[in-house]
């Protein structure tokens, strides 16, 4: 703050600007500074609470709302103060409700991928992939194009992180205070795992989050990571720390900071279902990475760290795609707070990045790495482009001509997405199924519909070896795929014996695809 760094009003006003710009970490940092300069300043506490809510910090938001209310006069309030009190009490009520909901989900074991290990021994896709390891290894290069390798290495990262985290323990310090001893590397392993394939992540211990938070605090303290502030402030301080302490200190601190934000985003989407907060955390991570890549563009990866590599940044962008889609799904339509045009831009950026960035010929990659950081992000981006076009086709006021164009692009995008993926991945099957439904909607000829239906039929037995008991399967995947399989089974003999011409447009008996399928990703 160049004018007066002791004036709480200036910090609170800058926090208000950051809130408007949706820079919530910067808003929280400035609002907190305002409350430190003047603990009795209600607007400082109110803006701090508002910022905390946007980043899914409900306990902190509750405390800040309470302090904001307490800072107001008890009696003889002005009209402006009465309005503030009403706003703060409304915010407090919402924060209490959201925190209570979150705690209920944790207490009742409703976190994403929460499983009872004994019920799924050997059944999880990652377990199936591990069992296939000898087969995949013996196939050599031929076996590289399998989702089994992707899961195998993603699960190795996740298991390594879980085992390391579980070695941490609490103990009493010399003064009787409770301390926590933890090994480092857990955040590296967890983030590497979800960027390789987020489907390997699960929680099988009700105390997982409690242990994780202790682990996070330990690693942040060990490496001097930033626990406050947004990308702008952190980049300023990182450059100053670099001048004072060198790359070793800065590289570790930035690594933990960025990875903690990634996990915060992942948990916001997976546990509290606060997809807006998830998008915010991912966006802040990407913002910080982009700033670092610009400032240190001539610095080697060895010095600045792997977090600034193309593959790492692409991994974060891919994770954000799904959270943004989920945020849009809660507020669908042309006037959504999460515009489809933004999702389209994000997806196109990833697709273009994958097209222009080839793997290094001098680096030896493990089987699955290229798929995780090049093939899968590209496929997901294409599927998102398909989703956007399909969704826009049903917006009010769309002409039949435009609807046909949107759906045509959508079907092509889904087919391309399916073709990018290994044919033993359930998403290969799923994307082909969505393309088929769009072809039906377009009344496309058999040469188009059967191409998609054949992809589903040929993929299904292969993907069931690995993905039989996946989360998508538990959500009704096989029932949704059944019409495509039946269509392929019924049409194929008629085409072979000449009863049908591939130029004919043959629809299934009932248009089961015309409603629910429109919201699928």
From TrEMBL:
SMART domains (UniProt xref): TPR
Q: InterPro entries of this UniProt entry?
A: SGT (IPR047150), TPR-like_helical_dom_sf (IPR011990), TPR_rpt (IPR019734)
A GO MF term? molecular adaptor activity
Entry's Gene Ontology BP terms: post-translational protein targeting to endoplasmic reticulum membrane
Q: What's in the keyword line of the UniProt record?
A: Repeat, TPR repeat
Q: Name one GO cellular component term.
A: TRC complex
Name this polypeptide is given: Uncharacterized protein
């Amino acid at each position: 703050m160049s004018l007066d760094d002791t004036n709480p009003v200036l910090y609170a006003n800058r926090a208000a600007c950051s809130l408007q710009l949706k820079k919530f970490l910067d808003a929280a940092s400035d609002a907190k500074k305002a409350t430190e300069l003047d603990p009795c300043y209600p607007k400082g506490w109110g803006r701090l609470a508002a910022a905390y809510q946007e980043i899914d910090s409900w306990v902190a938001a509750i405390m800040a709302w309470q302090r904001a209310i307490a800072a107001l006069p008890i009696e003889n309030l002005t009209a402006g103060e009465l309005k503030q009190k009403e706003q703060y009490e409304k915010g407090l009520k919402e924060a209490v409700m959201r925190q209570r909901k979150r705690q209920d989900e944790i207490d009742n074991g409703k976190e994403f991928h929460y499983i009872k290990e004994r019920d799924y021994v050997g059944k999880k896709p990652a377990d199936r992939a591990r069992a296939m390891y000898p087969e995949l290894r013996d196939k050599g290069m031929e076996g590289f194009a399998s989702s089994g390798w992707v899961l195998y290495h993603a699960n190795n990262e996740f298991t390594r992180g879980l085992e390391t985290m579980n070695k941490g323990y609490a103990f009493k310090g010399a003064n009787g205070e409770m301390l926590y001893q933890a090994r480092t590397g857990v955040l590296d392993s967890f983030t590497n795992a979800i960027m390789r394939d987020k489907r390997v992540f699960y929680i099988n211990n009700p105390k997982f989050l409690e242990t994780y938070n202790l682990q996070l605090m330990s690693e942040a303290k060990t490496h001097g990571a930033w626990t406050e502030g947004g990308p702008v402030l952190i980049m300023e301080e990182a450059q100053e720390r670099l001048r004072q302490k060198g790359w070793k200190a800065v590289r570790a601190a930035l690594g933990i900071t960025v990875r903690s934000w990634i996990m915060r985003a992942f948990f916001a989407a997976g546990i509290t279902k606060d997809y807006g907060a998830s998008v915010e955390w991912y966006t802040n991570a990407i913002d910080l990475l982009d700033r670092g890549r610009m400032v240190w563009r001539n610095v080697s990866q060895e010095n600045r760290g792997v977090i600034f590599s193309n593959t790492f940044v692409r991994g974060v962008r891919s994770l954000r795609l799904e959270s943004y889609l989920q945020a849009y799904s809660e507020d669908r339509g042309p006037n959504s707070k999460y515009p489809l045009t933004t999702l389209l831009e994000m997806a196109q950026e990833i697709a273009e990045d994958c097209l222009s960035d080839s793997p290094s010929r001098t680096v030896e990659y493990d089987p699955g790495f290229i798929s995780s950081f090049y093939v899968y992000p590209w496929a997901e981006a294409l599927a998102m482009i398909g989703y956007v076009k399909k969704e826009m086709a049903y917006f009010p006021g769309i002409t039949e001509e435009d609807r046909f164009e949107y759906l045509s692009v959508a079907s092509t995008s889904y087919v391309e997405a399916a073709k990018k993926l290994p044919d033993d991945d359930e998403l290969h099957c799923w994307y082909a199924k969505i393309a088929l439904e769009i072809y039906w909607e377009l009344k496309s000829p058999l040469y188009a519909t059967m191409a998609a239906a054949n992809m589903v039929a040929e993929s299904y037995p292969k993907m069931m070896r690995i993905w039989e008991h996946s989360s998508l399967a538990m959500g009704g995947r096989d029932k949704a795929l059944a019409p495509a399989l039946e269509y392929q089974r019924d049409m194929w003999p008629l085409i072979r014996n000449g009863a049908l011409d591939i130029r004919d447009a043959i629809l299934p008996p009932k248009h089961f695809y015309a409603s629910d399928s429109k919201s699928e990703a």
